[in-house]
Design a protein that fits this description.
GO molecular function: kinase activity
CATH superfamily of one domain: Jelly Rolls
Strand content: 15-25%
Shape: globular
InterPro entries: cNMP-bd_dom (IPR000595), cNMP-bd_dom_sf (IPR018490), RmlC-like_jellyroll (IPR014710)
Keywords: Kinase, Transferase
Protein name: cAMP-binding domain of CRP or a regulatory subunit of cAMP-dependent protein kinases
Order of helices and strands: HHEEEEEEHEEHHHHH
Mean pLDDT: 94
Low-confidence stretches: none
CATH topology of one domain: Jelly Rolls
Pfam families: cNMP_binding
CATH architecture of one domain: Sandwich
Length: about 200
């Protein structure tokens, strides 16, 4: 597999690797192609991989007892995704992960990740930073859901995912900010009229 410049740029934001360390890391990655709506992980399955998106977009979501989807996060190009609870604990997961578009990604298994820590200790720092950033994002998302209006949550979405504002279906953004598609449509139309 050719070196993925996107993933190596992502890593170089946090750690510096020697060429042989980079080659070793890339040798552990497995490429994967997903069709739109293809499911990568289901609730109840154990998450054994971290996913890095080269092109396309993944979403992590749960489904409540009434069948409503609640989007926790998106992963466009250059983002990592996993069911963090399941990946870390190796217990059955709570999220579904699927592709919102045709998506090209690479996977890194939990087993290879642990081996990577031994062979290239700098990766412990890299994945600690990624995990810390994820924890901060989840905490902020929880606080936003508890304290912000739907309009403010939409503005927060726009700040977090600028490339997705006009790319995602309204239904997905509505599920992320926690409103019905009808409410979201009215709210967005009102905001467009105001601007």
């Amino acid at each position: 597999m050719a070196l993925s410049s996107l993933i190596t740029r992502n890593i170089s934001q946090h750690i510096t690797l020697q060429p042989q360390e980079e080659e070793y890391f890339v040798s552990l990655l497995q490429p994967m192609q997903l069709k739109r709506k293809q499911v990568l992980l289901k609730e109840g399955e154990i998450c054994k991989y971290s996913f890095f998106v080269n092109t396309g977009c993944l979403r992590g979501y749960s489904v409540d007892d009434n069948g409503f989807e609640h989007v926790l996060n998106f992963a466009p190009e250059g983002w990592w995704m996993a069911d963090m609870y399941s990946l870390i604990s190796q217990k059955p997961g709570v999220l579904y992960i699927d592709a919102l578009e045709e998506t090209e990604l690479v996977t890194l298994s939990k087993t290879d990740q642990l081996q990577l820590y031994k062979e290239v200790p700098a990766f412990e720092r890299f994945f600690r930073i990624i995990t810390e950033n994820s924890l901060v994002a989840y905490q902020q998302r929880l606080l936003d859901n508890l304290s912000l209006t739907a309009e403010e949550r939409y503005h927060s979405f726009c700040k977090r995912y600028p490339p997705l504002i006009n790319r995602l279906p309204s239904k997905q953004i509505a599920a992320y900010i926690g409103v019905t598609p009808e409410f979201f449509s009215k709210m967005r139309n009102k905001l467009l009229r105001q601007s």
